[in-house]
Design a protein that fits this description.
The complex is a heterodimer of chains A (about 110) and B (about 300).
Chain A: H1 11-19, H2 26-37, H3 43-55, E1 59-61, E2 71-73, H4 75-103
Antiparallel strand pairs in A: 1-2
Helix pairs in contact in A: 1-2
Chain B: H1 13-30, H2 35-52, H3 56-71, H4 80-108, H5 120-157, H6 161-187, H7 196-224, H8 229-262, H9 272-301
Classes of the chains: A mainly alpha (about 110), B mainly alpha (about 300).
Chain lengths: ~110, ~300
Amino acid sequence: MTNRLDRWADPPLLVLASLADEPRHGYAITQDVAETMGVRLSAGTLYAVIARLEAQGLIEPLDAVDRRRPYRITMAGAEALAQQSSRMRQVASLAQARLSVRYGLTGA
Amino acid sequence: MSVPPPGSGETGPDHIEHQESAGRLARAALLLYPRAWRARYGEEIFTLLEDTGGGMRAVFSLAWHAVPAWIWPPRHLHDRDDRMRASLGTVLLAWSALVGISLVFVQLTQFQGYRPAGHPIIGWCYAVIDAAVAVSALSAAAGGLPLWLLMLRRARREHRLRDTFYLLLPVLAPASYLAALAATSRLVSHPNGFSGLQFLGVTIAGFVAAAVACAGPILALSRLRPRGPAVHVAARCAGVAAGSIAIAAAASAIAAVGLSLWAREFAGYHQVAQVGGYLAVVAIGIVAATVGATRGLRSTLARPGR
């Protein structure tokens, strides 16, 4: 079933999270995001995000290998991802605590 | 680095043919992006499409994201002169359309000698239209002529016949139109001039001539890729020209609504469909002109390297 809150799966965050593991090129990012986070990034979305993140200095391109250019997360990108993850963790903890008390749901 | 094996799943002939067709469409969708964007990411996307097989989702996604790529290009792809040239083309087209619309409006109202008694708003609108069109034409000439002359000189110096022809289209197309109009008007024996249908035909032909006249400099801008002060001045003047023609068009829209409300006996302004269609066309023209001009002005104000 499609979750109605899937909009919260912000593509820039997904790409940063994918690159936090290791440098990846476009196809490898889409595969990793699909396998680990269950979101399929289309070509247009992916490269719109890559262009923005690169412009903001959150990721940087490496030398192309066989026409595939890998990207690496920068220190600024890692810090931004850490901050956003922390905020998301706070929201998740708060939501789970309140759901548990009021509805007995654990969100598992 | 992990690189999963590309391309998997169905491999039947129909599926392959479908994928190839979608891949071609996706490559065509890439043409919708700005030149700098394609130069930077085009090859990578081609490779990604080869790996994933493209598909209609990729086509729609690429086409959809081309819009923000034009409106908010990433800073590292921000070619100021390229952006100014693109905005000049957009403004020229929208400006010509709005000037044409304003002239048709003036022909159908002011030139008929109509001044509704007791409704000064319409009269004020007429005055605003006259002044704004004059300011707009002067701004367009002030910014466009130096750039046009610069490109024409370069095209002639470098013996670029095609570009010279493109640059002469703003002269040739209106001159041909006016000559054809003069010849046609002699053949019309109607005592009150053109009939309604003939006027419509003349108007459509006028818009076609204007479009051809605009296409010439737009193509020349794209091929000659001029840079420097002339482009900056043209972009600034285009901002003034677009702003003032937008005011003229807005005034004509107010006047058209006023005529439909207060002068129902006059011409066809009481017909809601006609007025609604006119307002829609004017709104599209104003949005295109102002967005294009704003992009150009922002490029002139941007710091180098941004």
